[in-house]
Design goal:
mainly alpha, 12 helices
């Protein structure tokens, strides 16, 4: 079955394959890094609201490490099906509840006579009023959007080709590009709606981890715990591609020396979790910049730079000159976006 690294190999040989594999591995590990920042912050807030315990995020991170190290040693990805399904249900609950909080926040402001009395549709007027009060452009943090928006589709970047190859009927495979565009458009629409709704509701001071911006209460705490549990369940699945790439590379070296591969794989998976946790400690308060930097440095090349070059190389005898120039322009723009977003994120880190 074709995959992204396989296409890179057919286009640019082992060097291209290695570059893509390293990029995918680092990007998946980066997503796991965001999980190791997200969960401790949520657990810290939940413990503070529920039990009035000010537990350090480092202790919360240590607890998550204790769970993720054994889970990351699972070799059969099918065993993660149940936990992944449960994680999806918890995320759906969290999304619906967050939207409920946002809409309720806007509705609770209708007691203001100056707003409610000026329109026959006070709720819509309140939404419009709040929307118009938001700054149209964030001059101090706009660059974070570039990398963040790319990382949102990290799964699609690496799984698009295998998904299309997995479609059995040729007639269905021809429909896949159109269906894929509709699905991505639907996801983008929901992302936009969710982001704007919560921004309008909670204002310009909404925190990076949005669940910690919810009004204090039992319901908000359940959302924080649900999201934390969902991320804990999703972590092994996100870490699996990166772990497989690293382990297969190490396997080629270790099997020649007669080493015990089973124990070595467990050591590698444990070291990955430990290294990511150490990085998480140093970047605990910079989740937005971590996400942006990963999207810029890793996401932009994998999504915008490499695919057009692969297309040009594999289709050099069939593609029109106009199409090949267009691919080159997209690749060049990807490089520009990567450089600008990466440099501005690093310069504004502190």
């Amino acid at each position: 079955m074709l995959s992204y690294p396989e296409l890179a190999y057919r286009s640019f040989g082992s060097t291209g394959e290695t570059i893509v594999k390293v990029g995918i591995s680092m990007m998946q590990s980066g997503v796991c890094l965001t999980y190791l920042i997200f969960v401790p912050q949520n657990l810290h807030t939940s413990a503070l609201l529920l039990l009035n315990w000010d537990i350090s995020t480092n202790w919360c991170l240590a607890a998550m490490m204790a769970v993720q190290i054994p889970l990351s040693q699972i070799r059969d990805i099918r065993k993660l099906t149940v936990t992944n399904l449960l994680a999806n249900m918890l995320i759906l609950y969290g999304l619906i509840t967050c939207l409920g909080f946002a809409l309720n926040s806007m509705g609770s402001s209708l007691g203001d006579a100056s707003i409610a009395g000026s329109s026959s549709h006070p709720f819509i007027h309140e939404v419009v009023h709040r929307f118009e009060s938001l700054p149209p452009f964030n001059s101090s943090g706009w660059f974070l959007f570039m990398g963040t928006s790319v990382l949102l589709f990290e799964g699609s970047i690496t799984l698009l080709v295998p998904l299309q190859e997995a479609v059995q009927k040729p007639s269905d495979r021809r429909k896949f590009p159109s269906l894929y565009r509709k699905v991505i458009l639907g996801i983008v629409t929901f992302y936009t709606f969710f982001g704007l709704t919560c921004w309008v509701a909670f204002g310009d001071n909404v925190r990076t981890v949005m669940t910690t911006s919810l009004p204090p209460g039992t319901m908000a705490t359940t959302v924080q715990l649900a999201y934390s549990l969902a991320v804990v369940f999703t972590f092994p699945l996100q870490n699996f591609p990166s772990l497989e790439i690293i382990c297969r590379t190490a396997d080629k070296i270790l099997t020649k020396n007669g080493s015990d591969w089973g124990e070595t794989r467990n050591v590698i998976s444990t070291l990955i979790v430990i290294v990511l946790s150490i990085i998480a400690v140093t970047t605990m308060n910079d989740l937005d910049k971590v996400v942006s930097l990963m999207g810029s440095v890793l996401g932009c090349p994998l999504a915008f730079c490499v695919p057009p070059l692969i297309h040009n190389r594999l289709g050099r005898n069939t593609l029109s000159k106009r199409r090949m120039i267009g691919n080159g322009v997209v690749s060049a723009l990807g490089v520009v976006a990567m450089i600008i977003s990466s440099i501005t994120t690093i310069l504004k880190w502190n």
